[in-house]
Structure formats: structure tokens, C-alpha cells
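Aim 2, interim progress. The first record below pairs a target sequence with its C-alpha cells.
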Amino acid sequence: MQLRNHIKTINHHKMEVMKNCFRVKMYRQGLLHDLSKYHPAELFPGGKYFQGDRSPNAAEREEKGYSSAWLHHKGHNRHHWEYWIDFSLQEKRIAGAPMPVCYVLEMVCDRIAASKTYKKDAYTDASPLEYYKMSRPYYIIHPETDRMLRELLEMLAREGEEKTFAKMRRLLGESRREAVKKRVPAFARRWLEKGWNSTK
């Protein structure tokens, strides 16, 4: 068991995600990201199946046919699209529910950090997009969530981190303003949107 090396890897990954989240102004999510990885249900399988250049979940899955660590992880972390799979009453099948914008943005931060952690010097801004394209056929994900994820990864590959993180900050601000509008009464929304004089 390479538990020490596994802990070093998840510490490094968590620090990279935290830096990314802070750049997007998601401070709470950056601090709380992936805390479940320190739970025994994830920590010990991670040490047993540690690889160094890929997720230990893949090795556990190859041996057992499933990953107990991943089943625990995806059920405790909202930045994974797998967390949002549910039965759709409209479609009468298992489908992806729409993810809140803040968790889509955390997912992007996570994918950048994971690619840097495992690819090391071979990392480029296109690496997260390449992983997305390779694994996308297996996703059960809401179309709007998928569209936002893909567009941000394509922007990262094309224009780099600075412009992509700036875009992510704008999306976060817009989603927070929309959330505030939904919480205030209709008359107050009209006043905020048009000004007091237009409501007389």
C-alpha cells in the first residue's frame, strides 16, 4: 500500500483545485473541495490502488469490476456530473439533472488540476479537453451542463487560463445575481431592474 504517496497526490491536487477556485472567486468551494477523499472509504482504497500517473479508482475498477472509493466519492461531491444522475419523470429514464453553475465551474477547476497532477510536464491547456473528448461518449449529463463544460474546455484549449477564468468569473456573477432575483418579491425585482420611478 502506498498510502503516503496517495495522500501527497490528493494534497497536491486539492491545492491546485483551491488555487483555481480562488481565481474564480469560489473561496468556500476551493477550501471544501474533495474533503471526502480523506474519509476511510476513499483513503484506504486510494492507497491500495495508487498508480501515480492515473486515478487509483481505475485500478480498483479493473480488479473488482467497480470502484468502492468512486461510488463513495461521487455521492458526496456535487462538482461531479455523476452526482446529478436521477430518474427523469419527463423522459421516463435515468438522465442527468442540470447542475448549478457554481458546480460546473468547480468541475472545470477540478479537471484542470487533475490533468496537471497526472500529466505533469506533459500538460497543456488542451489536456482537459482531450480527456473530455475521450470520455464524453460514456456521460449521462444534462445538455446545458454539457454545453457549458465543453465550451469552457474549448476556450481553455484555444485561449488559455486567463481568459477562461475571467469568463468563469462572469458566469459565476451572473448566476449569483439570478439567484438573488429569485429570492426577492416581484415588486422589489421590478424596482431593482427598472428603477423606482418606472413602478409608479
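The second target in this work package is listed in the same format:
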Amino acid sequence: MAGLSLRDHALIAVAALVALAVPPWLLREPPHGDATTVAPAALAAPPTPAPLRAAFARTLFAAPATDALPDDAPQLLGVVGRLGRDAVALVRGAEGTRTLSPGDSIDGWQLRSLAIDAAYFTRGGQSARVPMPGGE
């Protein structure tokens, strides 16, 4: 501490004393019978939450859609690749088995998107969610 002046040494000493004295002073018990001591107010009970009957009445997992697939919808055999990047679907249709990327078509059905367990096809105004075999 060669570069510190006497004033700097004094300030460091005062700061150290304050740092050592303040925590015990803050943790001390207040004196009993002191007129300035105020009893803590009783805590109020929290408000009753709104009833959750609707949340508890519904099923935890939604049942799969029971929409029947059109008879000529392609059959999904599998999904390969990373969804949203390079995933392709292995699909069987009337023309045989092919791999399709989103936007490709088979038997007039256009592959719109892929999910981990299904493929979504459209044809005209029709749409079909074709599940993975054994998934549902």
C-alpha cells in the first residue's frame, strides 16, 4: 500500500469498521417496552381464486380427430429428416411409393406440411391429415 495517503488509509479503516458494525446492529432485538415499537398487523388471507371447474372438467390430452380419410388419400409410411428443414415423407399412392417434400404432389394430393406423426395433404377444397401407421 505504498501509494496510499494517510487520508486514504483512514477512509479504508472507517469503511471496514462500518462494514463490521452495521450487520450486528441491524440484527439486534428491539428493546422491550419501547413506545416506538409497533406490533405487526395481522396478515389477511389471500383472496379465493376463481373456480377451476372448467379446467378440471376437460381432458388432459385432446382425443385425436376422428375425421375419416378419403379413400384415395395417400398412405404415409414414414417421415425422414429434420422437420422444417429437409424432411421428406415416404408415401404410398396409386402411382406407387415415392418420397415427397412439402409442395410435391401424388395422385392429385399436394403435401402441405409434415409433423412428427402425420402428413397434411390438400386437394382442391379438401384437406386430410394422414397419420403415421401405428400412431393412432
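The CA atoms of residues 32 and 123 lie 85 Å apart. This observation will shape the mutagenesis plan for the next reporting period.
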